[in-house]
Amino acid sequence: MKISLRKKKLRNERVSLYLEYYNGYSIDKNGKQKHNRNFEYLKLYLHSNPTTTNEKQENKEVMELAQNILTLKKADYIKGKYNIKDDKKGKILFLTYYNKLKEEKYESKGNYDNWEAALKHLEHYCPTNLMIKDVDEGFLKGFK
Asked: In angstroms, rounded to a whole number, what is the distance separating the alpha carbons of residues 76 and 128?
């Protein structure tokens, strides 16, 4: 897989930045190549024709951020490909992590309520010091 940072010109004279995940290609039944791509829009924008020093500085900062995100995504892909485990992620408390995910869903009221209800059940079932690395199939079956 190849991960690339791409730009797309928008109607409002700005440039949107996104990541392209290229997974090669396949040949359909008609003999044509079909490229397998996925996109992740970063919600980062550049000025298409920066004139002031402020706009140029903003563009520079946004590009640095986008390059850092690209580097992180490539590192995550390499970790998964070569089965490299990250011990830092496993040492986070499970309920703290779940709470963080729940708060990200706050914009969607119906979805947020489901996460909130599930949290109440999780708080009754699992110990407060349970870490993510300790969550396994047995834990999930017991919770179910």
From this structure: 28
For the whole model, what pTM was predicted?
0.58
Q: Is 102 helix (H, G, I), strand (E, B) or coil?
A: helix
3-state secondary structure of 79: helix
pLDDT-based confidence at 83, cuts 50/70/90? low
CA-to-CA distance for 76 and 21, rounded, in angstroms? 13
Residue 128 three-state SS: coil
The DSSP secondary-structure symbol of 92 reads S
For residue 54, what pLDDT is reported? 96
**Helix or strand or coil: residue 135?**
coil
Is residue 18 classed as helix, strand or coil in its secondary structure?
strand
- DSSP state at residue 107: T
Read off the DSSP letter of residue 25: E
Q: Which residue has the tokens 């706009």?
A: 55
Asked if 139 contacts 126 with a C-beta cutoff of 8 angstroms, the reply is yes
CA–CA gap between residue 118 and residue 133 (Å, rounded): 20
